[in-house]
Write a structure and sequence with these properties.
The protein is built from 13 helices and ten strands. By secondary structure, it is α/β, with parallel strands linked by helices. It has two domains: 44 residues, Orthogonal Bundle (Arc Repressor Mutant, subunit A), CATH 1.10.10; 252 residues, Rossmann fold (3-Layer(aba) Sandwich). The strands form two sheets. The protein has a seven-stranded parallel β-sheet, sandwiched between helices. A three-stranded antiparallel β-sheet has the order 6-7-8, with helices on both faces. Strand 3, helix 7 and strand 4 form a beta-alpha-beta unit.
Length: 310
């Protein structure tokens, strides 16, 4: 019997771990194919092999729980995906985010601040059209002259508001005025003061997480200084390093402050892609994010980096 168990173990290793066919195992072990089939069946009966069917929902919940424990974040929602295509994964993650966020918006009487970026634009597009009561949506930034819709803060706020039948407040001032003097003047306007008041009363902030690609894009547009080399990502243009410490890249911007985001009742970050793993870790370490929504491939990449103490 001991010899038979050894054969079961060898056949199981070749079949389940090494992915040999039963005929290849038969040839290698000098047995018949029927004998190999019996060895594999007996290996299961003798508990030499344990067949476990993974539940994708349970697996994703465990991934989320592991990130919560490792990075001290309140909630991580992990979307199960079957494909490695980046665009499809972003779409499925965004749809999961919409599913999670919509009940929060349906409470009504919510002050909802939205960030910018491709993921946030897609979220605005995928958010189901649903009537809500007494909500108001507003951007976390002033306006820019960027031509891409994903960087048009007012347009993204309008898109969100339109989907949920909410009121919308616009930023009638630039994100980065031309000079310190201009910045001071804009801060005196009623437009800025009204939006600043809203930033201080955020119920839900919906943000993306930028990585080095975004840092490079905006360094060209706004002339960030050499400190950008130590930054790994941003939340609403507040840049941070891998340890979650903030890196001040510029002055004279008109946007919600880190303190505004920290005081928000809930800040939900939606981000996916293994190339964002380091940025996601840094973002969670800042303490600004309450809830992360991502996909399972990204979640595993995040945990792998955390395991390496990166």
């Amino acid at each position: 019997m001991e010899q038979q168990k050894k054969q079961m173990e060898e056949a199981a290793v070749l079949y389940y771990a090494k992915k040999y066919t039963q005929q290849e195992i038969a040839d290698l072990m000098n047995l018949s194919r029927q004998t190999v089939s019996k060895l594999l069946n007996d290996a299961v009966k003798e508990n030499i092999v344990e067949i476990k069917i993974h539940n994708s929902k349970q697996d994703c919940e465990e991934l989320g729980a592991q990130i919560c424990r490792a990075l001290k974040v309140r909630q991580v929602v992990v979307c199960a995906v079957s494909n490695t295509n980046a665009d499809l994964r972003r779409l499925m993650t965004v749809r999961k985010a919409a599913e999670c966020i919509l009940p929060l918006l349906k409470r009504g009487n919510q002050k909802i601040a939205v960030s910018w970026g491709r993921t946030i634009q897609l979220l605005a597009e995928e958010l189901p059209r649903e009537a809500t009561a007494e909500n108001v949506v507003f951007p976390l930034f002033g306006a820019t002259d960027q031509e891409q819709v994903c960087f048009m803060s007012n347009e993204l706020a309008r898109g969100f508001a339109d989907k949920i039948g909410a009121g919308v407040k616009y930023a009638w001032f630039p994100y980065r005025p031309d000079s310190r003097e201009d910045c001071a003047l804009f801060k005196k306007t009623s437009y800025y003061k009204k939006l600043c008041d809203l930033w201080g009363e955020i119920d839900i902030a919906i943000v993306g997480i930028g990585n080095h690609e975004i840092i490079q894009t905006f360094s060209k547009a706004f002339g960030y200084n050499e400190k950008c080399m130590s930054a790994v990502g941003d939340i609403s243009t507040h840049f941070f390093d891998a340890g979650g410490s903030f890196v001040e890249l510029y002055e004279n911007t008109l946007c919600a402050s880190k303190e505004h985001l920290r005081q928000a009742k809930q800040t939900v970050a939606v981000a996916c892609g293994e190339d964002k793993a380091q940025a996601i870790i840094g973002a969670l370490r800042t303490g600004l994010v309450d809830t992360l929504i991502t996909d399972e491939y990204t979640a595993r990449a995040v945990l792998a980096r955390v395991g390496k103490n990166v």
